[in-house]
Design a protein that fits this description.
Elements lengths: L17 H4 L7 H4 L13 H4 L18 H4 L36 E4 L5 E4 L3 E4 L5 E2 L5 E2 L7 E2 L2 E4 L5 E4 L3 E4 L4 E3 L5 E2 L7 E3 L2
Antiparallel strand pairs: 1-2, 1-5, 2-3, 4-6, 7-8, 7-11, 8-9, 10-12
Length: 198
């Protein structure tokens, strides 16, 4: 029993030799070459057509019932060259830029009451220079040592205009001034410790 062909066999008046009528037949070679060898399957051109998987667009592709996503993916490439099939591969997704390095947290230091020692949030314990005292009562940004270390630090004694300085000893605010500061100040910064009375 012979398989049913969708394309009619050659007319009876044409020779049964494949080369005589197959070339003029309207069907695509990819279809004609699948017919048995007494029809078009034996034509010389079929040796390359049957193995051809290059992308092309057969004239029947647009009328075929399958969706384009299926037709474009057929391994034989019969419809892969049609305009509906995008042969350009999608570019790979862009690589996101690397995250910038995070800034280190600010390092604040505070006198801890042990002479010239201070404690810093990030770097730990540190010391003012030799002969200096840590006098600041608030946290100071790391490196701003003049705001917290001094060789001679003065504080009010609570006795009128008298102050006591760590290196130079007892001193007094000017005549008509009182010693008012509740914190230590570096020697010479009198506006920060003395004020006019009354």
């Amino acid at each position: 029993m012979r398989a049913l062909s969708l394309t009619p066999p050659p007319p009876a008046h044409i020779s049964s030799s494949p080369q005589n009528w197959c070339a003029d037949h309207a069907g695509a070679w990819s279809t004609k070459c699948t017919w048995n060898s007494t029809e078009c399957g034996g034509c010389d051109v079929c040796a390359t057509v049957v193995n051809d998987t290059s992308a092309r667009c057969e004239n029947w592709c647009s009328d075929h019932a399958k969706p384009w996503s299926t037709k474009c993916a057929w391994a034989n490439g019969q419809c892969a060259g049609c305009d509906k099939c995008d042969l350009t591969p999608s570019p790979p997704p862009a690589t996101p830029p690397p995250n910038p390095p995070s800034s280190p947290p600010p390092d604040y230091c505070q006198c801890n009451g042990n002479g010239n020692q201070m404690s810093c949030d990030v770097s730990g314990d540190r010391y003012c220079g030799t002969g200096q005292e840590c006098y600041a009562t608030t946290k100071v940004l790391y490196g701003e040592w003049d705001s917290m270390c001094a060789a001679d630090v003065c504080e009010c004694t609570g006795n009128g205009n008298q102050m006591s300085c760590s290196a130079s000893g007892d001193r007094y605010c000017g005549t008509g001034e009182e010693c008012y500061a509740k914190t230590k100040v570096p020697y010479g910064q009198w506006d920060g410790i003395c004020q006019t009375t009354g």
